[in-house]
Structures are given as C-alpha cells and as structure tokens.
Prior knowledge:
CATH architecture of the largest domain: 3-Layer(aba) Sandwich
Number of domains: 2
Number of helices: 13
Structural class: alpha/beta
Order of helices and strands: HHHEHEHEHEHEEEEEHEEHHEEHHEH
CATH topology of the largest domain: Aspartate Aminotransferase, domain 2
Radius of gyration: 21 Å
CATH superfamily of the largest domain: Type I PLP-dependent aspartate aminotransferase-like (Major domain)
Number of strands: 14
Strand order of the largest sheet: 1-9-8-5-4-2-3
Strand content: 15-25%
Shape: globular
Amino acid sequence: MPVAPPAPIQLLDLPAQHAPLQAELNAAAAICLHEAAFIQGPAVGQFAAELGQYLGGPHVVPCANGTDALQLALLSLKLPAGAEVIVPAFTYVATLEAAAVLGLRPVPADVMPGTFNLDPQAVAAALTPRTGAIMAVHLFGQCADLQALRQLADQHGVSLIEDNAQAIGATFQAEDAATWVAGTVGEVGTTSFFPSKNLGGFGDGGALFTRDAERADYLRQLANHGQTRKYHHQHIGLNSRLDTLQATLLRVKLPHLPVWTAARQRVAARYDALLAGLPGVAVPARDPRSTHVFHQYTLTIADEPGRRDALQQFLAARGVPTAVYYPLPNHLQPAYEYLGYRAGQFPVAERLCRTVLSLPIHPTLTDEQVAYVAAQVRAGLE
C-alpha cells in the first residue's frame, strides 16, 4: 500500500490561507454589511488606489470579473468589426472568448516550449494589416517576453493588451534596465480576482490597469453602462462593477500578497531541488528577465502516449492532487471550429496539452508535504 501523505494535501488550500485573517475578514465584512453601500461603495475606490500603489502607479479600474476585464480592454481600443487579435495558442479560453464575443477574430500564435508564453517570432508571423491588438498572457505566473511584444506592437502600430490574471506582482527586466510590472506595459492590462488566483476574492471580480488617465476614465464609463454621469450614456458599455463586499475583503488580503508570493516561490524552489535530474520530466523554465509568482507549478512530462495521464493517476492514488491546464488547445475546441484551424498548426501548444501536469502549490504547503509530493512524482516516473 502507498505511504500516506504527512497531512492531507490540497491543490490549493484557501481555508488554511484565510484562517489567520478570519477575524479581520469578519470585521471588514460586518462593516460593509452595516454600511449597506453594496455597489460602488467607498471600499471599491480605496482598493483600486491601494492596488495601483502596489503595482507601481497605474490607474486601476475594478470590474466584475477577469473575462469582462478582457472585453472592456478590447472595447477601449475601438477596433473595427472583424479586426484580428493575436492570442496565445496555449491559454485559458477566456482570452479568445473576449475577442470572439465582440465580433473580433482571435488569431492564435504558438508559444515557447519552456515558459509556455507567446513566441514573439510566431506573433510576428501572424501579424497582418487586419491586426488590431496582441493579447499577451503571463501564463502560470511568469511574464511573457514584454520587450519583444512591446516592440512588435509599436513597430506595427497595434495595441498590446496584457492578460495578467495569473501573474499579479510579477516583474520584467527591460533592456534599458527598467523594471516593468506585469499588466502595466501594454495599453491595457487585466486581472482576475477569481478565488483561486494569487490575489483571490470570495466570488468573481476583476480589474484593468492603464497608465493613460483618459483611457482609465473611458474604461470606468464602459464598465458602468457607458455612463458619463448617472442616466447619461455616452457609450455602449457593460454592467461590470466590482461589488463593495469583494473590494472590502480584497483590501484585507492585498497587504499579505508579497508574503504569499514569497512562500509560493520557496515551494517552487524546493520542488526544483527535489525533482532535479529526474528523467522524463522538466521543471518549469524561468525567463531570467522575469520574476515568477507561481500561480501554478507545472511540469512537462515526456511526450509518450499515456505517460502524463498514468502519472496523474499514480499520484491521485497516493493522495497527491494534480491538474492539467489545459487538456485541449483552443483552436481545436468545438466553439472555435469556425476559425478554420486544424490539428498540427500549433505543435508546441498541442504537445503541451498532452504533457503538462500542475502540482499542488500554495502559501501554506509545508516542506514535508512538498517532499512527499516530489517523492511520489519520482516513484511514478522512475
């Protein structure tokens, strides 16, 4: 019989993360309930200001969720119907979905096999006169190649949008030695406060970032029915507001984000050391220009039929939960058949869908639990 883990292991343990904050969360929620300013209450603006300070000064526009944030970012570009938006071939579906529902055309570009982020050469090849935007996803907690993507966008007169739902607080070292904060380099950056994110709420929530004050005002209007003032609608917009209770609770969590990020990084470094040299598996690659906040710790298993799935089953039988992000590339999803892509066009993305496996990673994972997980990965592959 397999040895049991030292304590039950969760892929993400939110109750353990929240436990030290419970009294403060309860008190904040009670104040919000007492004030009853549930929509656009003062905590929303306070949270936006505090998050902007944490990210180095961009304007922050809260909204209802991360997918809405992507749609609002695209709406703010005022692209013509049918304009093309270059997206990673390996990402969560919301990145494509946001463009598709607005009548824009998602154009996948393949990704780098190590970092899983957009391949700038593939982006360059996908650019056409119809391209309106490049949408970079900072996948699993590490910045895409912001230097190359910003240069491509500028050279071709298109906008850069950053989907930063998985990499809040990550930074990128530019060629001029400037430190760029993920989500603040493009015309618009977006994030999600879905509960499983590194800064997660207690329901849905999202935000947009921009260093352009005029665009920030426009985004605020778009997110509130296109209003310039109450009952005066200058634009066609969305009903996409971060509710006051979510902002209230996120304000409690935000000051702890640096400590939680450092804890995730320590877990990742321990996994690296314990899995070093193991045949048939690659630990997450690091772009030396980017920090990594480890929303996920994702292994790449040797591309042999059934090997990744067999390892996942082996680990599950030994009390180690894992996840596959993502099992099917978006260009092969039935909803996107209309785009006309076929299997084999994005080989890196398709191979990753067959080979990636994410291990448990969260701030409260203990050294003993990490050691147990790594030992079981070794046992399953050796």
